[in-house]
Design a protein that fits this description.
Layout (H helix, E strand, L loop, with lengths): L13 H8 L15 H11 L5 E5 L4 E4 L1 H6 L6 H4 L9 H17 L3 E12 L2 E15 L5 E10 L1 H23 L2 E7 L5 E3 L1 H6 L10 H6 L3 H18 L1 E9 L5 E12 L5 E10 L1 H23 L3 E6 L4 E4 L1 H7 L3 H12 L2 H17 L3 E8 L5 E12 L5 E10 L1 H43 L3 H18 L5 H32 L5 E4 H11 L1 H7 L2 E5 L3 E4 L1 H17 L8 E10 L13 E9 L31 H11 L3 E6 L5 E8 L2
Parallel strand pairs: 17-19
Antiparallel strand pairs: 1-2, 1-5, 3-4, 4-5, 6-7, 6-10, 8-9, 9-10, 11-12, 11-15, 13-14, 14-15, 16-18, 19-20, 20-22, 21-22
Helix pairs in contact: 14-16, 15-16, 16-20, 17-19, 19-20
Enzyme class: transferase
Protein name: histidine kinase
Pfam families: HATPase_c (PF02518), HisKA (PF00512), PAS_3 (PF08447)
C-alpha cells in the first residue's frame, strides 16, 4: 500500500509515516502489501483531509486516523493504544457516542450526518467537552459489500457556545419582558427630566401609576450608596459610555431593598453627555438569596469539616472544587495540590480506570456515582472506601454541582473477608459431612439388602421347621410343648414383620425420589380395593371424597394410604364397625402458617379420620416416632413403625402432618402437601 507504487494516493504526513512503520501482520487487516484497493482508497481520502477523520475497517473495526486527529482528539502520543486496535480501545470516553451510529451505518449502508454533538475527549491530561459536527459513511468493496466506516469530524465548539450564549441572552430578555419586572428609564442630563415605565414606581414601593422625578428617586437611595456607588458609577460612565451599579434603596414602606441599574450614555459631537437610557430591576430577593446561600455554604463547610467522612464537591462539568478537612488530614497534602489533580493520584491504580469510567458516565447521564475503591492514606496504606456522588439539579433538571462522600469501609471489608473464610471452612466441613452421609446411606442400603435377604432367611428356616414339627410330631407334644411352639412361631412372625417394616422405612429414606403428577383419589381407591376382604369382614365404611391431583412419589403415597387406612381398620373399637372418612381440599399456606407453612404456597390438604380407639393428645408427637406403641402387642399387632413411615413420606414431599384425637373417640390425621 505504501510502496512507491501507491505514493501518489497519499501526501507525506506524520500519520503516513506512523502507518508505514506499524506492524500490521498481527491485526485483522493483515500486512500492508495485501491491503485491498478499497482500504487503500479510503486511507488516501482520510490522510489527505484537513478535517479530523477516522477509518474503522473490517469485522473488528480496526482504527485508523489522520494528522488532524492528533491534537484535536487528544490522540498524540497514544498510537500504540489506538492505531490498529479493535474499536479504538483508548477512545473509550467517546465510543459510547459513536458506536451506535457506526452500527446503524453498517446495518443500513446509508451515510449519517450529526450536528453539534457534545463529545468527551481526554486531552492534555484531563477530560474536556467539545462540540462536533460529523459524518459517517460506509466504504464498500468492488462487490458493494461494506468493509469499513469513514468518519469525518469538524470542531464547532466555538460556534455552539456562541450560539448558546446568544440564546441564553435572548431567553433572559424574553423572560424579563414577560414577567414585567424590568423597569426602563430615560433621563435628560441637561434638564434632569425623567421618563420611566410603571414598573419602576412599584420597585421603589409606589403605586404603578405614580410618576417619579429624578430627585424623588435619588431621595430613596441609601445615603451611603449615593456617593460611594451611584456618583462613582456616573463618573466611570463618562469614560466608558456604560452606566451600571448595584445599590441599596429605602422603599416607600420603609423596607430596605436592592436595585441593579444598567444604562447607555449618549453624547453630542463635542462629547457632551445628553441623556441616559437604561433598565432597572429589583434584586432584593437575589441578594437575600445570595446571603442565604453564603450562610448555607458556610454551614455546609463547617458541618463537612466536622464529619469523619471524606467529602468533596465538583462543578457541573466534574471539576473538583472543594475538599473537607478530613480529606486533607487523610491524604496529608494541601488543598491546592488536591485541586490540581492530587485526588486522582490517591485512587489505587487497579480502580482508577473504573473510577474515571463511572465518573464520566455519571457526568453524562446525571445518575448517581457509586463505587467501592481504595484511597492512599498519608502513611502509604491503601484503605477501602465507598464513594457516592449525587448531582444537585435546578428546577429544570440541569446539573449545578456534585456533592460527594467517601466512607471508610475497611472494617466491613475485613469482616467480609473473615466471613468468607469462615464460610469456606464451613463449606469444607459440610462437604466432609456430605461424604459421611453418602457413606451412611451406602451402609443403610447394605442394611436394607441384609434385611431383605440374610436376616429373613434364618426366619424362613425357623418357620419351615416349626411347620414340619407341627405336621409330623404334633401328636407327640404335650400341651405345654404345643404352647411353646405356638409362641416361637408367633415370635418368628413378629420378627419377620418387624424386618419388613424396617426395610420399608429405610427404603423411604434412601430410594430415589421420582415425582409424578398423580390423582390421589385413584391412589386411595386402589388401597381401599386392597383391603376389600378386611372391610367386608368388619362391615367397615370407607369414604373417599374430593382428593386432588398432586406431584408425588407414587409408590410412597400408596404406602402412606396403606398404613393409614390399615391402622384405622386395625385400631377400631370392638363391636363397632369402622368408619373411615378421607377428604381432600386445596388450602392457602397463610391459613396454616402456625404449622410452619410457606404463606406464598398452595397446599393439597388430605384429612383421614376414623371412629376407632383414638389416643390421648399427650402422645400426638410420640406416635410418629419409630418403634413407639401406645398399646401392648397382645391387644393390637404391629411394630410401631407404620406412622414413622407415614411421617417420613410426608417429609420427603416437603409436607406437614399432624394428628389429633381423644381416647375412644377416634383419630384424625391431617396432611398438607405443597404444590410443586
Amino acid at each position: 500500500m505504501f510502496s512507491k507504487k501507491y505514493n501518489s494516493f497519499l501526501k507525506d504526513s506524520e500519520m503516513t509515516a506512523v502507518i508505514r512503520a506499524a506492524d500490521w501482520s498481527n491485526t485483522s487487516v493483515g500486512e500492508i502489501d495485501k491491503w485491498s484497493m478499497a482500504l487503500r482508497s479510503a486511507l488516501g481520502i482520510m490522510l489527505n483531509s484537513r478535517f479530523p477523520m477516522f477509518l474503522f475497517w473490517g469485522k473488528d473495526m480496526t482504527c485508523f486516523y489522520n494528522d488532524a486527529c492528533l491534537d484535536a482528539m487528544g490522540i498524540r502520543g497514544k498510537h500504540s493504544s489506538i492505531l490498529g486496535k479493535s474499536r479504538a480501545g483508548s477512545l473509550s470516553e467517546m465510543w459510547h457516542i459513536i458506536s451506535p451510529i457506526i452500527k446503524n451505518v453498517l446495518k443500513s449502508g446509508e451515510a449519517s450526518w450529526h450536528e453539534d454533538q457534545r463529545v468527551p475527549i481526554f486531552r492534555s491530561g484531563k477530560m474536556v467537552y467539545s462540540y462536533w459536527t460529523s459524518s459517517y459513511s460506509a466504504v464498500c468493496d468492488d462487490f458493494e459489500k461494506i468493509e469499513g466506516i469513514l468518519v469525518a469530524m469538524n470542531d464547532v465548539t466555538e460556534k455552539v457556545e456562541a450560539r448558546k450564549k446568544k440564546e441564553e441572552a435572548e431567553e433572559r430578555t424574553r423572560l424579563a419582558a414577560e414577567i414585567a419586572q424590568i423597569a426602563t428609564w430615560d433621563l435628560d442630563l441637561q434638564t434632569h427630566k425623567m421618563i420611566h415605565s410603571e414598573s419602576l414606581a412599584t420597585i421603589f414601593g409606589h403605586e404603578k401609576n405614580v410618576q417619579l422625578t429624578y430627585a424623588d428617586i435619588i431621595s430613596q437611595f441609601q445615603p451611603d450608596d449615593i456617593a460611594d456607588v451611584v456618583e462613582k458609577a456616573f463618573e466611570l460612565s463618562m469614560q466608558s459610555g456604560t452606566y451600571k451599579y448595584e445599590a441599596r434603596v429605602i422603599k416607600n414602606n420603609g423596607e430596605l431593598g436592592w436595585i441593579r441599574s444598567h444604562g447607555k450614555i449618549f453624547f453630542d459631537s463635542t462629547h457632551e453627555p445628553l441623556k441616559i437610557i437604561g433598565t432597572l430591576i429589583d434584586i432584593t430577593e437575589e441578594k437575600n438569596h445570595s446571603e442565604i446561600l453564603m450562610e448555607s455554604e458556610l454551614k455546609f463547610r463547617l458541618l463537612a469539616d466536622a464529619l469523619p467522612q471524606l467529602i468533596w464537591t465538583a462543578d457541573a462539568n466534574g471539576a473538583l472544587n472543594y475538599f473537607n478537612l478530613s480529606v486533607l488530614i487523610y491524604a496529608g497534602i494541601n488543598y491546592r495540590d488536591l485541586n490540581a489533580g492530587g485526588f486522582q493520584k490517591l485512587i489505587h491504580p487497579d480502580e482508577l480506570e473504573q473510577f474515571d469510567s463511572k465518573w464520566t458516565s455519571a457526568l453524562i447521564t446525571g445518575d448517581d456515582f457509586l463505587l467501592e475503591h481504595r484511597l492512599l492514606r498519608q502513611d502509604g496504606v491503601y484503605r477501602w472506601f465507598y464513594s457516592r456522588a449525587i448531582a444537585q439539579k435546578d428546577a429544570a433538571g440541569k446539573i449545578q454541582k456534585w456533592v460527594c462522600t467517601s466512607t471508610d469501609i475497611q472494617q466491613q471489608k475485613n469482616f467480609t473477608e473473615e466471613l468468607e473464610k469462615k464460610v469456606s471452612e464451613r463449606t469444607a466441613e459440610l462437604e466432609n459431612t456430605n461424604v459421611n452421609l453418602v457413606n451412611m446411606n451406602i451402609e443403610l442400603q447394605s442394611f436394607a439388602y441384609i434385611s431383605s435377604h440374610d436376616l429373613q432367611e434364618p426366619l424362613r428356616k425357623i418357620q419351615t421347621f416349626i411347620s414340619r414339627l407341627n405336621d409330623t410330631e404334633e401328636m407327640k407334644f404335650s400341651a405345654a410343648a404345643k404352647e411353646y411352639f405356638e409362641k416361637i412361631n408367633a415370635a418368628a412372625d413378629r420378627m419377620q414383620l418387624l424386618i419388613q417394616d424396617l426395610l420399608a422405612y429405610v427404603r423411604t429414606s434412601v430410594t430415589d425420589k421420582v415425582f409424578m403428577i398423580k390423582n390421589l383419589q385413584e391412589l386411595a381407591e386402589e388401597i381401599k380395593e386392597d383391603y376389600r376382604e378386611r372391610i367386608q369382614e368388619t362391615n367397615a365404611v370407607v369414604e373417599i371424597r374430593n382428593l386432588c391431583e398432586a406431584k408425588v412419589i407414587p409408590f410412597q403415597f400408596r404406602q402412606l394410604f396403606n398404613n393409614l387406612i390399615g391402622n384405622a381398620l386395625k385400631y377400631s373399637k370392638p363391636g363397632i364397625p369402622p368408619h373411615i372418612l378421607i377428604n381432600g381440599s386445596l388450602i392457602n399456606g397463610f391459613e396454616i402458617k402456625n404449622l410452619g407453612a410457606n404463606v406464598d404456597s398452595t397446599y393439597c390438604h388430605i384429612s383421614i379420620a376414623d371412629n376407632g380407639i383414638g389416643f390421648d393428645m399427650e402422645y400426638k408427637d410420640k406416635i410418629f416416632q419409630i418403634f413407639q406403641r401406645l398399646h401392648s402387642k397382645t391387644e393390637y399387632s404391629g411394630t410401631g413403625i407404620g406412622l414413622a413411615i407415614v411421617k417420613k413420606i410426608v417429609e420427603n414431599h416437603n409436607g406437614i402432618i399432624t394428628a389429633s384425637g381423644a381416647e375412644n373417640q377416634g383419630a384424625t390425621f391431617d396432611i398438607y402437601i405443597p404444590e410443586l
